[in-house]
Write a structure and sequence with these properties.
The structure is a single chain. With about 220 residues, the protein is α+β, with helices and mostly antiparallel strands. It has one domain: Ribonuclease T2-like (Ribonuclease Rh, Chain A, Alpha-Beta Complex), CATH 3.90.730.10. Strands 4-3-7-6 form a four-stranded antiparallel sheet. Helix 1 crosses helix 2. The longest helix has 17 residues. The protein starts with a helix and ends with a strand.
């Protein structure tokens, strides 16, 4: 048990420090953007980066490091960690301005019940999107609503182990509109920590170029 606790703490605290599990170092690019319709509403498109990385953290790992997080009360399979601007060269921008967060953050409790996490994600990543706080959070909401969680993982009742490719296979089976190359499995000490999805600025899936997927033969998946 002690080894398990140490493994999870190391696996999750490291990405939390910079909110990055698989990318490299921070910088900014300057491509232009435009508005593109996704689902029932238009998604605002920012500038200053190349694409988004949507991180959905596996809740047992997330909640171990965030025991008081409101997201953990219902024991969900995955929780939204963040929508992170990325660059094609493997770098990523962070803390780009001191722009204020949303005037009414409670309206985003469906995606961020924990207001502390919302503030952190806006300041660290949202300020680099080129969008206002509300536009950015609405974009994050659209992104997560576009991903279907596999029933096998959503209803898991006991720990299991799967190869990373099989986890991606579960996601592509219920998200046929998203190519396999758009998914990345994140792991730490052979435990699943997150599933990540690469999206362009209009939230259309793209291949994950410089994002490294989990290299373990199999990863352990504790039940929510």
């Amino acid at each position: 048990m002690k080894q398990r606790i140490v493994a999870i703490a190391v696996a999750f605290l490291l990405p939390i420090a910079g909110c990055k599990s698989n990318t490299q170092t921070a910088s900014q690019a300057t491509p232009a953007g435009k508005t593109s319709p996704v689902g029932p509403q238009a998604v605002a498109v920012g500038t200053g980066f190349d694409y988004y990385l949507l991180n959905l953290s596996w809740s047992p790992e997330f909640c171990f490091s965030h025991p008081d997080a409101s997201e953990c009360a219902a024991h969900p399979a995955f929780v939204l960690h963040g929508l992170w601007p990325q660059n094609n060269d493997g770098t990523y921008p962070e803390n780009c301005s001191t722009a204020p967060g949303p005037a009414n953050p409670v309206q985003y409790k469906d995606i961020y019940p924990d207001q502390g996490l919302l503030r952190h994600e806006w300041q660290t990543h949202g300020t680099c999107s080129g969008l206002g706080a509300d536009q950015f959070l609405q974009t994050a909401r659209s992104a997560i609503r576009g991903i279907v969680i596999p029933p096998t993982l959503k209803t898991l009742t006991s720990q299991t182990s799967l190869p990373p490719d099989d986890i991606i296979g579960l996601f592509t089976a219920v998200n046929p509109q998203i190519p396999r190359a758009s998914f990345v499995v994140s792991c730490g000490h052979n435990y699943l920590t997150a599933i990540e999805v690469c999206l362009d600025k209009g939230l259309h899936p793209i291949a994950c170029g410089n994002i490294r997927s989990c290299r373990a033969n199999t990863v352990r998946i504790p039940a929510p």
